[in-house]
Amino acid sequence: MKALLWIDRRMCLGTGLCEAMSPELFVLADDNLAQVIERHLHDDDRVELARSVAECCPSGAIVVSAEAHARASEEGTGS
Amino acid sequence: MVESGQPAPLFSSEYYQDPYPTFAWLRENSPVHEFRFPVGDVRMWIVTRYEDVRTVLSDSRFSSEGGRWGNEEFKQAGLVSGAGSVLEEAVTVVDPPAHTRLRRLAMSTFTPRRVEEWRGIVRRLVTSTLDRCAERGRFDVMEDYAGVVSAGVMGEILGFRIERHQELVETLAKVFPSDPALMRYVPEGMAKICEYAERLVEEKRRNAGEDLTSALIRAEEAGDQLSKKELVAMVAAMILAGSDTIRAFVGNAVLALLDRPDQARLLRERPELAGSAVEEFLRFEGALSTVLFRLTTEDLDLAGTKLPAGSPVIAAILSANRDPLRFAEPDRLDITRTGTRHLGLGHGLHNCLGAALARLEGEIAIPALFERFPGLVPATPREEIRYIESWAMRRVVRLPVEVAEDGPVSAAAGPSA
């Protein structure tokens, strides 16, 4: 399964939960907000990992979306 | 800065009343500081700079699993959180993968709709509690306001029957005593909280409602659910982490505003500042001076200090939040402050699970007190306001106030200068 991973930076509070849970997918950038390292996820394990981090995020700022659905909403977030 | 002066020793009576000079000295002179913990005389380190505190809270080599990674000295001294109870495997003290599973199941119940319901609960309890305070005219912010609201909210959210609320308030007072002489009742209180949690889980299993306990029972992720033991631990952890902390936080914020009438006036005149004010209260003096112990999983180097595997480390979030390297004029309360995120609700894996509730209660309960009583003044000399002697929690013992008869002195005055 393929998915697209991104952060809604207007919602991110920089709590660092995502980076602590999965440093291979997330990092806190210089402005202390989260950034994704891997945008396109290609295998089920990665997608599942991203989903579990997204569900733990205290501000709901992490979005994991099936590739096709992602295109439209991705416009304008510019993460 | 503080080169010459000898600051109060860590965890001494003087330190508890004013830890800030000690923190300032440590940040400057010994940012990863070795000392002996008063309980069990255990060798450990306290970390006081913002940068280093963040490292400790985000680097997986600093574990929360005391029973697994702590050295013998630490374990022998009985410092493993929750040891011997259901809380041993609570979400607060386990690391991934167990942590991921528990946190994910818990977070799945914090839906936007449920959080909106909490807002209604908080508003209602704040209003009824303020009514009772108004009748009194003179009251203790800790016991008659913040304590009633925080325990009441937690009781209602979890689905306690209303007649048990007072019992919950009393048991919480036992678990988090203001008087060190009452420390011996802590285990008894702790056992009672676990017992309440167990009874509540059993009750909701038979008779589910719309409350959070019932939601946790129903919570499911890919066919996986919390076991009975995990449910009890989760509910007990929520009671323990989510009531007295809010009481402490609200109390500290109220005291900060009583000390600074200009900031109280600003908040009254511009209610839209409630959100940024809460962040500033969490930074300035949140409920915790330190988070729970972390244990090093291997030999490592932290900011130039070597820590052997199994070392207990205390991350002083209150000190990090006053670090002048991160915050301009850190000792000044400014409810319009923006910029660097504070660590008042922790950071990383174990950052506050109930952050949304903490913010919500703060945004409602703190401004409401000053809105209802614009002429609120302390009813005791400032030097008589004392802090409890707890290594982790920062909370005033009592905060007596009275409602001035004539309303606000500044009613006719313009905006503050």
Kindly describe this structure.
The complex is a heterodimer of chains A (79) and B (417). By secondary structure, chain A is α+β, with helices and mostly antiparallel strands. In chain A, 33% of the residues lie in helices and 23% in strands. Chain A is built from 3 helices and 5 strands. In chain A, strand 2 and strand 3 form a beta hairpin. Chain A is globular and about 30 Å long. Chain B is an alpha+beta fold and 417 residues long. Chain B has helices spanning 13-17, 20-29, 50-58, 66-69, 72-76, 98-107, 112-136, 141-158, 165-175, 186-206, 212-218, 228-242, 244-259, 261-269, 274-285, 317-320, 355-372, and strands at residues 32-37, 42-47, 62-63, 138-140, 294-296, 300-302, 305-307, 312-315, 376-378, 400-403. In chain B, the strands form 3 sheets. Chain B has a 5-stranded mixed β-sheet with strand order 1-2-8-5-3. In chain B, helix 7 (112-136) runs antiparallel to helix 8, helix 7 packs parallel to helix 17 and helix 13 (244-259) packs across helix 17. The longest helix of chain B is centred in the first third of the chain and has 25 residues, at 112-136. Chain B is globular, with a radius of gyration of 21 Å. Classes of the chains: A alpha+beta (79), B alpha+beta (417). The A-B interface holds A 13-17, 19-21, 28, 32, 52, 55-58 and B 54, 57-58, 60, 96, 100, 103-104, 107-108, 221, 340-341, 345-349, 351-353, 355-356.
